[in-house]
Design brief:
Blueprint: H1 2-10, H2 12-32, H3 37-46, H4 51-59, H5 64-83, H6 89-111, H7 137-169, H8 171-174
């Protein structure tokens, strides 16, 4: 049961990239079939969850097809990493944290899009340290799932460090 739960947690970043691939596919559908309600519904459902990372990738000169290919590749790579957790810990660490940072940055950009700023936020030197949670349930679930995957990789790294330290303290291995 523990292995199943940990595999489920490790699949979180792959799901983030898969939803990004669905969003890239929705952009392609919208470009090809602009009068279809399904294309608009899919696009507008995914837009608040993954807005900023897709904009950053498009700045790098990637079109929708390249973006779809990249995100689908990252999804497949994430599934492979989640089913081989002992082999590629550093890659799993980077994969999970990039997904988590992308989600947090996209929700920060989506939550601060206001027409004007009033109140304490207009004071000089004011920094808002609150975590911008998305308004969509999908975005909140993805952030929690990606955070659990990050915690899982941190726990595995700490466990490996402790094992190496305990092996180094054993008298039989010193000689």
């Amino acid at each position: 049961m523990r292995i199943l739960v940990l595999t489920f947690v490790r699949l979180g970043p792959a799901l983030v990239y898969a939803i990004g691939a669905v969003f890239a596919a929705s952009m392609l559908l919208l470009a090809m079939y602009p009068s279809r309600p399904f294309a608009w519904e899919l696009y507008l459902t995914m837009l608040p969850v993954l807005r900023l990372p897709l904009m950053l990738l498009s700045v790098a000169g990637m079109g929708a097809w390249e973006l779809l290919f990249t995100l689908a590749s990252m999804t497949i790579f994430g599934v492979y990493l989640s089913f081989h957790p002992k082999r590629f810990l550093r890659a799993r660490f980077i994969h999970a944290h990039v997904a988590m940072l992308g989600l947090v940055l996209s929700n920060a950009a989506a939550s601060t899009s206001e027409a004007g700023r009033i109140g304490a936020s207009s004071l000089p030197g004011y920094v808002d340290w609150s975590l911008p949670l998305p308004t969509a349930l999908l975005g909140t679930a993805l952030i929690i799932w990606a955070a659990l995957a990050c915690v899982s990789t941190h726990a595995e790294i700490i466990r490996r460090i402790r094992i190496r330290a305990s092996i180094g303290r054993m008298p039989a291995y010193r000689a």
